[in-house]
Amino acid sequence: MWNNKTSRFFLMMYLLLVSFSCTFIDFSPLEVSCSLPENGGYFDGAELEVIFSLEVKQEIVQEIIVLKRNGSSVAADSRKMGSSIFIKPTEPWQKGASYSLEIQGEVALVAGGSHQVSFYRCFTYGPMVQAFSLVDFSEPCENEPVLSFQFNAPVDSPSFSKNFSLTPSISYSYKLEDEGRRITIIPEEDWKYNQRYSWSFQEFESQEGFLLDKKYQGDFVWQIDTELPVLERICPVLLVAENEYFPKEGNEISLCDKEPLLFQFSKDMDFDSVRSGLRFEPNCTGELKRGKTNKEFLWVPEENWSLEEEYRVVVSAEVQDGAGISLAQQEEAYFIVENDFLQVLSISVGGVVKDFQGAVQASVQKNVQDAVLVSVQGEDSSIVTQINFSKVFDHEGLVQALDAISMEVFFPLTASYPVLEQVGVSGESSLELWWSGFSPSSDEVDNYYQLKIAGGASGPQSATGNYLKEDVWVIIHVVKS
After folding, report:
1. 372 and 474 in contact (C-beta within 8 Å)?
2. Which member of 132, 226, 336, 468 has the greatest number of CB atoms within 10 A?
3. CA distances to 119, 129, 271, 319 from 123, in Å
4. How would you list the strands of the sheet with 430-436, edge to edge?
5. What digits encode the pLDDT tens for the residues 90-127?
6. pLDDT digits over 33-66, tens only?
7. Which is it for strands 98-108 and 65-69: parallel, antiparallel or unpaired?
């Protein structure tokens, strides 16, 4: 039979065997602590230390660590030392940024078993100083058309430039003042009237590396303007230099040569709008240029205005000022070109002078009855013709005049064709031409030739753009001397 001593002996032996074959599980509560207060604060160390009351497995804790900067998750690294886990972001800490650390989930203990952990802290990284922030700003005004921002610490210029936004976009520059605490945005083009502009910036740094405390944004409307623009006048101008001109006096619009037209408005106008809103009838090519102010524009023709032409110029009602306000109605005007036509004053053929002054040139010298009688010794003989015009020519005009002058067979067509041998300039408005190869008349037939000067804009044209209204002809009766 068992006695009490035997029972106690076997019980002690059983407990001893169990103690060698099993690991004891610690059912004590797991406590988590940190040097950061629960209601947030400042931290400027290299790593956050999270202290567990029991030793935990670091690789399990790593899986449930959530580190955020300004509300966005960032990658984090951790290491274990004893019962502490040290945590830091993979990228460098950002001064002045708001961080939060959350460890939420089940962790395994080194001694066995697991515990649910719910740990949360928020903090600002950096020393305990005043947050980097915007303290004041000023909107553009008429006397000071700049946008200005005042901060409580010097600004890192490249960081601001990268994070500043202005819409609608315009070209601008900026400068730092007040030891870097003040940034002034300077537009490189005019603000548009009645336009609402929006600005914003966030997450740029101070010169000490502190991040701006939050996103800032705002908007403003550049000066309200409701006044309708008015086309005040259209007039020709005397162009002295590139941007120096004087309006011509008088109410009637009359032009000559390549005189520009001045369009003067009551307000500053949008250049592209004015350019697209101009129309000429008949059409003419030219270039619109800015005048002395944004209220004045010059239309400079590429070629001389057409003689004796009446032009109509239309300014569309769609033309807008700088605020986008259109004209109340379409405007139009009529003008004439006052240049007189170029004239041939006289033509000398072989010493015989034909005076054209006062004559109706289109009907002169087209008949053999009015032919100029010129004698030659033979076909090798030359006939000299001298043509006197009423206007002065420049070099280009003289070349064009030569291209417009011809000597042709008039009758009979079997006569030899004359050749231009030589050209001379006897004055700024006179040309001399030597012709040879004429067939003298015989007893059987009279030989006639015609000297022709082409009229119109494609013919001879003076330095001021004057040209012959119609062709000019001279019939030459060539006889043998």
Report:
1. yes
2. 468
3. 14, 13, 55, 59
4. 352-355, 344-349, 382-389, 430-436, 419-427
5. 999 988 888 999 999 999 999 889 999 999 999 988 87
6. 987 877 778 888 899 999 999 999 999 999 999 9
7. antiparallel
* Distance in angstroms (rounded) separating the CA atoms of residues 181 and 150: 6
Distance CA 308, CA 338 (A): 7
Distance CA 407, CA 448 (A): 11
pLDDT top residue among 20 and 335: 335
Cα–Cα dist 382/365, whole Å: 21
Strands 65-69, 72-74: parallel, antiparallel or unpaired by DSSP? Answer: antiparallel
φ, ψ dihedrals at 313, nearest 5°: -115, 135
pLDDT at residue number 18: 44
SS3 assignment, position 203: coil
| Cβ contact 48:86 at 8 Å | yes
> What span, in angstroms and rounded, lies between the C-alpha atoms of 387 and 481?
24
Q: What is the helix (H) or strand (E) element at residue 184, kind and residue range?
A: strand 182-187
CA–CA dist 124, 97 (Å, integer): 6
pLDDT digits (tens, 9 = 90+) for 194-209: 889 999 998 889 998 8
CB distance 176 to 155 below 8 Å: yes
Backbone φ and ψ of 395, nearest 5°:
-60, -45
Q: How far apart are CA 270 and CA 195, in angstroms?
A: 14
Q: Is the pLDDT of residue 425 over 70?
A: yes
Residue pair 262/291 in contact by the 8 Å Cβ criterion:
yes
Place of tokens 């740094």: 205
CA 15 to chain centre: 93
Question: Does the structure show a pLDDT above 80 at 282?
Answer: yes
Residue 350, both tokens = 């072989």
| Contact yes or no for 63/102 (Cβ under 8 A) | no
Cα(142)–Cα(45) distance, integer angstroms: 50
Residue 62 Rama label (left phi>0; alpha psi -120 to 50; beta): alpha
Distance CA(93)–CA(270), nearest Å, equals 50
- Residues 200 and 118 sit within 8 Å (Cβ to Cβ): no
CA 431 to chain centre: 50
CA 230 to CA 265: how far, in whole Å? Answer: 6
Confidence (pTM): 0.45
Output the DSSP codes for 25-54: P--PPP-EEESS-TT--EE-SSSEEEEESS
